[in-house]
Structure formats: structure tokens, C-alpha cells
Amino acid sequence: MTKSELNKYKDVLEAKHAEMMQLIRNRDGIAIERNSDSLDEVQQATERELAIRNLDRDSNLLRKVDTALRRMADGDFGVCLHCEVDINAKRLAAVPWAAFCIRCQEIADLSYGDSAANRDASWVEAAQSKGARRPAYA
Length: 138
Ligand SMILES: [Zn+2]
Known about the structure:
Elements: H1 3-33, H2 41-74, H3 89-94, H4 102-112, H5 116-129
Helix pairs in contact: 1-2, 4-5
The structure holds zinc ion (ZN).
């Protein structure tokens, strides 16, 4: 990957990071204001649940974006965490925070089902616990 390609992804990731931080911060504000609302309990519970789900999704994405930025700093950006091949450029353009090549992502999707938050975490752990990337003596 060329330096200018890297910089392009860095810009996208940093913009995404800022966007997610803003979303998460704004939602905190909404949650506090809602105390004075006259919504009934069921509606409040539903909204709270939705807010939590969105917050989960956004923090999950934020974590992926930050991890990708860290990989960039480490010089590992664009390399599949699992099989260590270069992630396809088209995939990176669509999902710059992708941690896996499309093949490994598909296997992960099949193995871990739809619980995206847990799936990604356990898949990354599995990939990292192989310990193949950084030998202890390095
Ligand atoms: Zn892979």
C-alpha cells in the first residue's frame, strides 16, 4: 500500500472517529434531558432500549475504527488479522476499519452468527491468541 493510500484511509478513519464520538456524546445529552418527559413507562423503556442498542452499535464501530488506526500506527493496517493476507482494496475502500479479509470475515459470520459485537471480539481474540504475528523474542 502506498503512503498516499494509507493517508487517504487515515483521513476516512479519523473522520469516522470524530463522527462516532459526536453521535455518542449527543446521545448522552438526550438521555439526561429525557428525565423530565411525560412519556409513559413502556415508551420510555422502548426508547431506552433503542438508545442502548444504537450506543452499542456506535461504540462497537468506534472501537473498530480506533483499532484500525492503531494498526495503522503499528504498520499492520490492511492486513487480515486472521490469515495475514492483504485485505482487498475494494473491501478496504468500503470498510476501511475491516480487520479481516472477506474470506475470513465470511467464516467468522458463519461461525459466530449474528451477534456482531461478541462475534468480532471473540474472532479477534482467537486470531490474536494464535500469537503468530509477534514472536516473543521480537
Ligand atoms: Zn483472512
